[in-house]
Specification:
215 residues, mainly alpha, 8 helices, globular
C-alpha cells in the first residue's frame, strides 16, 4: 500500500511536470503576480489532475483486461500522442492567445482560469491513464478502499510540484523574461518528443522483433 501511494505521488509529479498551456499559465501568474497567485493557479491544475486521476483509475479498473491484452497498442498510440503533444509544444507560441493580467490582486479568477484551461484538454486523461498503467496501478477495483489514498497521493504530488515551482519562480521572477520561458517550453517539448519516440519504439520493437500482437 505504501509503495502504491509513493507511485501515486510520483504520478502526480510526472503529470504536472510537462510544460503545456496550463503550466505556462502558472508560470505567467508566478512571474507577474508572485508566489501566492502562481500557487493558486497551480491548485486549479491540481483539481483537474485529481479528477483526471479518478477517471483514469476507474477506467483502469474497468478495462484493465484490455490494457493487459493490448499493452503494445497502448505504447504505440501513447507514443504517437505524446510525441504529437511535444511537437505542438515545441513549435507553438504559448503566449499568443494569453492576455496579461497585470498586477491585479490574487483572486478565484487565477484558480478558475487553470480549471478552464485544464478541462479544455481532455487528452490529459490519456496521459494520466498511461502513467497509471506504467506504474502498475491497474490492480484496484472501483470498490477497493485503497483507491482513496492513491488519489490523495496523486493530488499531493501535484500540489508539492506546483508549490516548489511557484516558490522558485517568485524568488527569481525579476530575472525571467518571456523569451526565456518560450525557450524552456521548446526544450521541454523536445524532451517530450523523445519520450514519445521511446514509447513508440518500445511498442514497435515488441511487435516487429518479438512477434507480439498489436491488438
Amino acid at each position: 500500500m505504501l509503495m502504491d501511494m509513493l507511485k501515486g505521488f510520483i504520478v502526480g509529479i510526472a503529470a504536472s511536470a510537462p510544460i503545456g498551456p496550463i503550466a505556462i499559465l502558472v508560470v505567467q501568474k508566478s512571474l507577474s503576480k508572485g508566489h501566492k497567485a502562481g500557487f493558486m493557479t497551480g491548485m486549479g491544475a491540481v483539481v483537474v489532475d485529481t479528477i483526471y486521476a479518478i477517471i483514469a483509475i476507474f477506467a483502469l479498473a474497468i478495462v484493465q483486461d484490455f490494457i493487459y491484452r493490448h499493452e503494445n497498442l497502448i505504447l504505440i498510440a501513447g507514443g504517437l500522442i505524446v510525441g504529437a503533444l511535444g511537437i505542438s509544444m515545441t513549435f507553438s507560441d504559448p503566449f499568443r492567445k494569453m492576455k496579461s493580467d497585470g498586477q491585479s490582486s490574487v483572486s478565484v479568477k487565477d484558480f478558475a482560469q487553470a480549471l478552464i484551461m485544464g478541462f479544455s484538454n481532455p487528452g490529459a486523461i490519456f496521459v494520466m491513464l498511461t502513467l497509471f498503467a506504467f506504474f502498475g496501478l491497474a490492480g484496484s477495483t472501483p470498490h477497493d478502499w485503497q483507491i482513496t489514498p492513491i488519489i490523495l497521493s496523486v493530488s499531493a504530488g501535484c500540489a508539492v510540484y506546483w508549490f516548489c515551482v511557484t516558490a522558485l519562480l517568485s524568488m527569481f521572477r525579476k530575472n525571467f523574461k518571456l523569451r526565456t520561458i518560450l525557450w524552456i517550453n521548446r526544450i521541454t517539448g523536445a524532451i517530450i518528443i523523445i519520450i514519445g519516440v521511446v514509447l513508440l519504439g518500445e511498442g514497435l520493437f515488441r511487435v516487429i522483433f518479438r512477434g507480439a500482437p498489436i491488438i
